[in-house]
């Protein structure tokens, strides 16, 4: 095989299933970003209590902790394609009903809490099914490139395309961002439903198998795989730090750096741009260094960025650090996801991914509390340094995995 042929083999074909799945993912991410940008504004118009406003976001974490493992087990039992389009149609109906409620001026904090919780509960099934479906649409050697293309496109539409559209939609009416999100769910459902159902590579379930037993099997399989176990521990530690950093970043920029809202917007934009660039570079990293070494190197660079952010009181340092942090974060995520898909049995991919993600998500709320406490005790720059401290053992835990 020539170098050109090898490169083509590692590139997913746009025609057929992957192109439609990619389009569905990007369209749905655009709608979700509209919703996530508009919801805090709606919450702020309904109450001036910061705790209530923040609780809307917290409702987006809770279902993963409660139902993430169940969602993975169900994803391994059902036709993943059908599960995805059915969930998207249901989410579209819920979002359309919410848009009508906002249009009729019937919005309330209770309705916001219920919607955020329900949408994320459905997401636990959708995301696990999507992760398990992708390997059936592209050849094994193209998985890394496929993940990179999916994540990069979602990063771009989420960071740069959706946010500027929200103010224009709000001029038309407060319900418009939610109506647009409902439409994207329907479009995504149609695209996923059009995928050709292939022969399942999953073995039949054993007689008498229960969801509880299958969840336990997924957890045990994840723990027995030293690579995935190490990645899960590292990612969970990192997510504790990320919770601390994200929850206090606005205080870091507007307080410690005294850069105002414009500075905060610049930092967030830099992180988003870095993530998009990282998606383009992820495959090159893995081809040059291997997947584990790429994750390891990404963690080392991110730790350095956090130290720089917490030590140097200059806006340009934080902007540069967050841009590089975003690049390395995407390199980490693409290679981590691809390793999970490569190393997991097809019949258990939903459960293993859900176990991984549930454990990782659990760290973020804890980190947010730690970040707030650190900022209150030692100053607005302390959470960045705390995050760096947490990244050190996370990266160190990957050292035994490097051959």
List the helices and strands and how they pair.
Layout: H1 3-9, H2 17-46, H3 50-58, H4 62-77, H5 80-103, H6 109-133, H7 143-172, H8 176-193, H9 211-224, H10 226-256, H11 260-289, H12 291-311, H13 315-343, H14 349-378, H15 382-396
Helix pairs in contact: 2-3, 2-7, 2-8, 3-6, 4-6, 4-9, 4-14, 5-6, 5-8, 6-14, 7-11, 7-13, 9-14, 10-11, 10-14, 10-15, 11-12, 11-13, 12-13, 12-15, 14-15
Structure, explained:
The structure is a single chain. By secondary structure, the chain is an all-alpha fold. It is 82% helix and 0% strand. The chain is built from 15 helices and no strands. The two termini are 27 Å apart. The N terminus is likely disordered.
Helix content: over 70%
**How many DSSP helices?**
15
Structural class: mainly alpha
Largest sheet: none
Quick structural summary:
Helices cover 82% and strands 0% of the residues.
Keywords, separated by commas or semicolons:
single chain, 403 residues, mainly alpha, 82% helix
């Amino acid at each position: 095989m020539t170098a050109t042929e090898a490169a083509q083999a590692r590139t997913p074909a746009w025609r057929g299933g992957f192109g439609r799945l990619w389009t569905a993912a990007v369209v749905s991410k655009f709608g979700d970003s509209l919703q996530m940008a508009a919801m805090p504004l709606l919450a702020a118009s309904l109450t001036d209590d910061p705790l209530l406003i923040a609780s809307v976001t917290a409702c987006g974490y809770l279902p993963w902790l409660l139902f993430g493992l169940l969602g993975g087990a169900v994803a391994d039992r059902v036709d993943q394609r059908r599960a995805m389009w059915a969930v998207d149609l249901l989410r579209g109906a819920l979002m359309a009903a919410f848009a009508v409620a906002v249009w009729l001026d019937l919005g309330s904090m209770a309705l916001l809490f219920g919607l955020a919780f329900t949408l994320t509960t459905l997401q636990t099934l959708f995301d696990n099914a999507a992760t398990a479906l992708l390997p059936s649409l592209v050849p094994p050697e193209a998985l890394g490139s496929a993940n990179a293309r999916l994540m990069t496109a979602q990063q771009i539409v989420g960071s740069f395309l959706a946010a500027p559209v929200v103010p224009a939609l709000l001029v038309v009416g407060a319900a418009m961002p939610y109506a647009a999100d409902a439409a994207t769910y329907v479009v995504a459902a149609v695209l996923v439903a059009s995928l050709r159902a292939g022969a399942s590579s999953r073995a039949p379930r054993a007689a008498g198998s229960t969801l509880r037993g299958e969840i336990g099997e997924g957890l045990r399989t994840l723990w027995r795989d030293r690579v995935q176990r190490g990645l899960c521990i590292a990612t969970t530690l990192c997510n504790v730090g990320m919770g601390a950093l994200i929850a206090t970043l606005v205080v870091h920029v507007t307080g410690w750096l005294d850069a105002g809202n414009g500075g905060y917007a610049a930092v967030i934009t830099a992180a988003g741009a870095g993530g998009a660039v990282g998606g383009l570079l992820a495959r090159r990293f893995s081809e040059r260094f291997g997947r584990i070494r790429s994750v390891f190197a990404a963690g080392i660079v991110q730790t350095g960025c956090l130290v720089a952010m917490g030590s140097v009181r200059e806006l340009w340092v934080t902007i540069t650090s967050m841009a590089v942090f975003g690049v390395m974060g995407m390199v980490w995520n693409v290679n981590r996801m691809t390793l999970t898909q490569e190393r997991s049995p097809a019949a258990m991919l939903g459960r293993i991914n859900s176990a991984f993600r549930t454990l990782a998500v659990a760290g973020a709320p804890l980190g947010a509390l730690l970040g707030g406490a650190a900022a209150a005790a030692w100053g607005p720059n302390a959470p960045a340094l705390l995050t760096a401290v947490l990244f050190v053992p996370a990266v160190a835990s990957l050292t035994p995995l490097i051959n």
